[in-house]
User: Fold NUDIX hydrolase from Hydrococcus rivularis NIES-593.
Amino acid sequence: MKTDEQKLVNKTELENFKVGVDNVIFSVDTQLNRLLVLLIKRKDEPFSGQWSLPGTLVRKGEALEQSAYRILAEKIQVKNLYLEQLYTFGGPWRDPRESPDSYGVRYLSVSYFALVRFEDANLIAKNLSSITWYPIQKVPKLAFDHNKILEYGYRRLRNKLEYSPIAFDVLPEVFTLNDLYQLYCTILGENFSDYSNFRSRLLKLGFLCDTGVKVSKGAGRPASLYRFDAEAFAPFKDKPLVFI
Amino acid sequence: MKTDEQKLVNKTELENFKVGVDNVIFSVDTQLNRLLVLLIKRKDEPFSGQWSLPGTLVRKGEALEQSAYRILAEKIQVKNLYLEQLYTFGGPWRDPRESPDSYGVRYLSVSYFALVRFEDANLIAKNLSSITWYPIQKVPKLAFDHNKILEYGYRRLRNKLEYSPIAFDVLPEVFTLNDLYQLYCTILGENFSDYSNFRSRLLKLGFLCDTGVKVSKGAGRPASLYRFDAEAFAPFKDKPLVFI
DNA sequence: TCAAAAGTGTTAAGGTTACACCCATGA
DNA sequence: TCATGGGTGTAACCTTAACACTTTTGA
Assistant:
């Protein structure tokens, strides 16, 4: 039987942690106009066989962001991406392995949110049935608290898109204004803005430059290819800028 | 001498963590029109004697936010506050105790940002020279990476104030529109907006209700006391709302 | 020559800014 | 009666939203 003294000591005892990084990786399939999120089928316990966000535990000497890039690189080959820290979920009993019968340490998750270019993202997997792009509307029940993390990431994506130039990290070097508009529509939903108003707002900002090159898409007038001019954008950095 | 095999094993070894919570606690002295941040003088190694953000290590069974509230309650008595998670700093070598000669585990910090009502915040300390409100412009070099955390929190505070009703968590139950304006001025700097425009914008939104009660401040016309009407605000929740 | 896709222009409604001005009180 | 702080009004300007219209192409 424990004395009161012992109970007090137990109460103020520090928790030991393993730290994991979970990535919410988004991509936009511009052909089918679908917003996708990358999911992994777990092959180990806990939650073996269930879909989850791609994650990993942080290794000795590894920075958190480094860990996020590592897991990303293990799952997909990609040239262009945007990545930022999302939120930290660290309450007790997130992970069954916390049980004293198991490892007896708490599992904290630092989540990151990424947007990658769909066209040049190659999935890496021994068997491709264990990794897939899921349309955001069709995501099933995920392992751990990953549905909550995903929801959080989705909200952040929509906000970021409205007042940051992250779209250009994920579009090809040159793109038509319609490509850009479609990307916004896919993520924010139709009728977030009229095309012609979107167009004039973006052009007025002055950091999209017309390359002069035209590209034809079946019938209809050919579209100009534009380029994002990072230098012309510089003055807007850290300023509240609205794209929609 | 290590074999290549051993090196590889070491490389993929998981890190063990202690998790700390560090709070960036802001307050506004409306008398002197100063934005203040709560700092603690450390009395233990490492960085003994240096100023730091109030922080603590997470205990067994304790949620992160719970930990943030605990350290806050240990340092100040306060009735009204706003608190949210800020960012997680978890790179290697943030803390000298990570050294193998010391505890040999990594110290990760989940930071929280809080805004408290200055008037009813009583500092708790055995000796008051070890805890103090610092004007934001005069903050010295802090322990660990706390200056970086503070800077991050300061940016978040300014953003939050512009499009969230956090000011009302920190104002008295009833307040004059000038009190509100002064709060905004102190945090965002003068000339963020004309008083009369600020006034009409806020009143048009319709969630500030005039109590009819007047209060006099020396010479001059008495001001109406207003109350924040949380119910009338409800429809604006989760909508992008701009106060400035 | 017609439909499709790209791109331009117009207009009404509403918001923002920078003020000038009126009101109520204490000294 | 005047200085002080509170409160109202307004005209010029800018932004937004909706939609009509022109241009350039392939079939």
